[in-house]
Amino acid sequence: MQSERGAYVQGETCLPKPLEHLSKEEIERKRVIATIMTKTLSHLTQEYIKNGFEWLLPVIFSKSTDPLWPDPGASIEKRIEAEIYGEMVRTTLSMIVHKIVASSLLIPKLFTLSPNVRIERRDRCLTGWHLYEFTQLDFEVREATSSDIMNFVDKLIKNLILYLRNNAKDELEYLESYNRLNVPDLPLKVFDRIDLEEKYGKDWENVFKENIREPAWVVNIPREFYDYEDFSTGRWDNYDLFLPKYGEVLSGSRREWEYSKIIRKMERDNIRRENFTLLLKLAREGKIKPSAGAGLGVERLVCWIVGSKHIGEVQIFPKIPGLVYDL
Ligand code: ASN
Hints:
Radius of gyration: 20 Å
Order of helices and strands: EEEHEEEEEHEEEHHEHHEEEEEHHEH
Largest sheet: 8 strands, mixed
Number of helices: 9
Helix content: 25-40%
CATH topology of the domain at 7-189 and 288-314: BirA Bifunctional Protein, domain 2
Bound molecules: asparagine
Distance between the termini: 20 Å
CATH class of the domain at 7-189 and 288-314: Alpha Beta
């Protein structure tokens, strides 16, 4: 691996270097990206608060976390488990279980900025789109429908772009992103995964992202037990938002809340029930309420905004699969 222009080069792909190895010029670019990150987070969190969401702090260790299975996109090399106080806990893969429980029992509209630890396969360092540690802006709304969430996200993305064009013009121009970052027309377009598979084949995600010019939705994607599935039609009531040229930045769904359906899906997917004891107990007691929500990859969003070649560039301390730096 050789060093070149702010990055280690591996094959065709540049892998972002740690801070202490950056040149003066590279430090300046990183600093501007950090300002875009600050403005993005500041704007997004304000939008959630304005829309009546409560801000939850994240958790790291829990007995239950996202199984991330079965999900055709998942490629976890290792799952981190640790024993504390005689109990087995896992680091957060996503706060999906916490969101469902908290929105059912306590706070109907919530969001969190949550560190997710996903030890991706090391070959994913070359996608420029994966990290082994990232931050998810995760949110959930009790009694919401999929269209409620999709309409909310449509406006969130459009308002963010408007905000940055007005309040971060110099930074975007420096990064050569200003002219590329257009305000999208709403509603964002919606595509069905079945049609995309028919048109582009198994690798539809990669072809799709090259064929869109504005962020666009894909719905009806088979995946984890907590996404709502209509057993009579086989349709999934879920949605992913894709960014042109980059890929999936947000995924979410209406949730399953009925005990019998959750159990049936866990059995079908070989999910270990003992890892979801509390969720199952609450569902059996009828305490899980219908909800919908989604999680937005913060670094992915900023990577697209600033036009980075590799997502590790938008992290101050890059967490690139297979590359463990000091910090
Ligand atoms: N945050 C996602 C959701 O709300 C789940 C995930 O990250 N796997 O559906």
